[in-house]
Amino acid sequence: MQEINRKLGALRRPPLLVRAARLGVPGYVRGTALPRLIGPGPLPTAREALARLIEIERAQDAARRGGAVTYRAAHHVAVLIAVMGEARLLDREAQENASGIDSLRLAT
Q: Full-prediction pTM beyond 0.90?
Protein backbone atom coordinates (compact mmCIF):
# COMPACT_ATOMS: atom_id res chain seq x y z
CA MET A 1 0.00 0.00 0.00
CA GLN A 2 2.84 2.39 0.82
CA GLU A 3 4.41 1.85 -2.60
CA ILE A 4 1.15 2.75 -4.34
CA ASN A 5 0.63 5.77 -2.09
CA ARG A 6 4.16 6.94 -2.91
CA LYS A 7 3.50 6.61 -6.63
CA LEU A 8 0.19 8.45 -6.36
CA GLY A 9 1.74 11.18 -4.26
CA ALA A 10 4.43 11.72 -6.87
CA LEU A 11 1.93 12.36 -9.68
CA ARG A 12 1.97 15.97 -10.85
CA ARG A 13 -0.51 16.69 -13.62
CA PRO A 14 -2.05 19.85 -15.08
CA PRO A 15 -4.87 21.18 -12.89
CA LEU A 16 -7.38 21.01 -15.75
CA LEU A 17 -6.81 17.25 -16.20
CA VAL A 18 -7.12 16.67 -12.45
CA ARG A 19 -10.31 18.74 -12.15
CA ALA A 20 -11.89 16.93 -15.07
CA ALA A 21 -11.02 13.57 -13.54
CA ARG A 22 -12.39 14.56 -10.12
CA LEU A 23 -15.69 15.44 -11.74
CA GLY A 24 -15.86 11.98 -13.28
CA VAL A 25 -15.04 9.94 -10.18
CA PRO A 26 -18.61 9.84 -8.78
CA GLY A 27 -19.75 8.15 -12.01
CA TYR A 28 -16.87 5.65 -12.06
CA VAL A 29 -18.06 2.07 -12.55
CA ARG A 30 -15.11 -0.29 -12.41
CA GLY A 31 -16.94 -3.14 -14.15
CA THR A 32 -17.37 -0.95 -17.23
CA ALA A 33 -14.23 1.19 -17.12
CA LEU A 34 -11.54 -1.36 -16.30
CA PRO A 35 -12.12 -3.74 -19.23
CA ARG A 36 -12.06 -0.77 -21.58
CA LEU A 37 -8.81 0.56 -20.10
CA ILE A 38 -6.80 -2.54 -19.19
CA GLY A 39 -8.41 -5.18 -21.39
CA PRO A 40 -10.98 -7.93 -21.02
CA GLY A 41 -10.88 -10.65 -18.41
CA PRO A 42 -11.73 -11.03 -14.77
CA LEU A 43 -11.62 -7.82 -12.78
CA PRO A 44 -8.36 -7.46 -10.87
CA THR A 45 -8.19 -6.43 -7.25
CA ALA A 46 -8.09 -2.70 -6.61
CA ARG A 47 -4.36 -2.93 -5.85
CA GLU A 48 -3.59 -4.79 -9.11
CA ALA A 49 -5.82 -2.49 -11.15
CA LEU A 50 -4.24 0.59 -9.64
CA ALA A 51 -0.71 -0.62 -10.40
CA ARG A 52 -1.64 -1.27 -14.04
CA LEU A 53 -3.52 2.02 -14.35
CA ILE A 54 -0.57 3.98 -12.99
CA GLU A 55 1.63 2.54 -15.73
CA ILE A 56 -1.00 3.35 -18.39
CA GLU A 57 -1.30 6.88 -17.01
CA ARG A 58 2.47 7.36 -17.11
CA ALA A 59 2.46 6.41 -20.79
CA GLN A 60 -0.39 8.84 -21.41
CA ASP A 61 1.47 11.63 -19.65
CA ALA A 62 4.64 10.92 -21.62
CA ALA A 63 2.61 11.11 -24.85
CA ARG A 64 1.07 14.40 -23.68
CA ARG A 65 4.42 15.91 -22.79
CA GLY A 66 5.99 14.67 -26.02
CA GLY A 67 3.21 16.09 -28.19
CA ALA A 68 2.37 12.69 -29.67
CA VAL A 69 -0.29 12.86 -32.38
CA THR A 70 -1.92 9.76 -30.86
CA TYR A 71 -2.49 11.49 -27.49
CA ARG A 72 -6.14 11.92 -26.56
CA ALA A 73 -6.97 14.07 -23.55
CA ALA A 74 -10.33 12.31 -23.10
CA HIS A 75 -8.58 8.96 -22.75
CA HIS A 76 -6.07 10.43 -20.32
CA VAL A 77 -8.93 11.80 -18.20
CA ALA A 78 -10.66 8.39 -18.28
CA VAL A 79 -7.47 6.76 -16.99
CA LEU A 80 -7.13 9.38 -14.25
CA ILE A 81 -10.77 8.81 -13.24
CA ALA A 82 -10.05 5.09 -12.93
CA VAL A 83 -6.86 5.77 -10.93
CA MET A 84 -8.80 7.96 -8.50
CA GLY A 85 -11.70 5.52 -8.30
CA GLU A 86 -9.45 2.52 -7.62
CA ALA A 87 -7.42 4.51 -5.06
CA ARG A 88 -10.63 5.33 -3.21
CA LEU A 89 -11.72 1.70 -3.33
CA LEU A 90 -8.34 0.56 -2.01
CA ASP A 91 -8.50 3.16 0.75
CA ARG A 92 -12.02 2.01 1.72
CA GLU A 93 -10.85 -1.61 1.82
CA ALA A 94 -7.90 -0.66 4.05
CA GLN A 95 -10.19 1.25 6.42
CA GLU A 96 -12.63 -1.65 6.65
CA ASN A 97 -9.82 -4.10 7.39
CA ALA A 98 -8.32 -1.77 10.00
CA SER A 99 -11.67 -1.28 11.72
CA GLY A 100 -12.30 -5.00 12.05
CA ILE A 101 -15.66 -4.83 10.29
CA ASP A 102 -14.95 -8.07 8.43
CA SER A 103 -14.08 -9.82 11.69
CA LEU A 104 -17.28 -8.50 13.26
CA ARG A 105 -19.34 -9.74 10.33
CA LEU A 106 -17.80 -13.20 10.62
CA ALA A 107 -18.47 -13.30 14.37
CA THR A 108 -22.17 -12.50 14.03
A: no
- Does residue 40 sit in helix, strand or coil? coil
Least Cα distance to 77 among 24, 41, 2, 29 occurs for: 24
Decide if 4 contacts 63 (C-beta within 8 A): no
Q: Answer yes or no: are the C-beta atoms of 90 and 47 closer than 8 Å.
A: yes
For residue 78, the tally of other CB atoms under 10 A from its CB is 20
Which residue type occupies 35?
A: P
**Contact (CB, 8 A) for 67 and 11:** no
User: 43 and 30 in contact (C-beta within 8 Å)?
Assistant: yes
Helices 15-24 + 73-99 axis angle, to 10: 60
- CA geometry: angle at 50 spanning 45 and 51, to 5°? 105
pLDDT < 50 regions, the chain: none
95-104 residue pLDDT tens? 777 655 555 5
